[in-house]
Amino acid sequence: MVEWRTSSYTPNGQDCVAVGRGIGIRDSKAPATHLPVSPAAWTAFLRSISNRGRA
């Protein structure tokens, strides 16, 4: 069983994107499907957004 996590900024835990560790991402309104994302791709994504705005 995958533990899906939503952003702490989502007030009701719905209408958002959820992340499943080692699995991928999904829309909370369509939880039966998900987009597979490799750990390397997820790490690259997180690095790109954390470096945004830095020169």
From TrEMBL:
Domain DUF397: 3-49
Pfam families xrefs: DUF397
InterPro entries: DUF397
Protein name: DUF397 domain-containing protein
High-level lineage: Bacteria, Bacillati, Actinomycetota, Actinomycetes, Pseudonocardiales
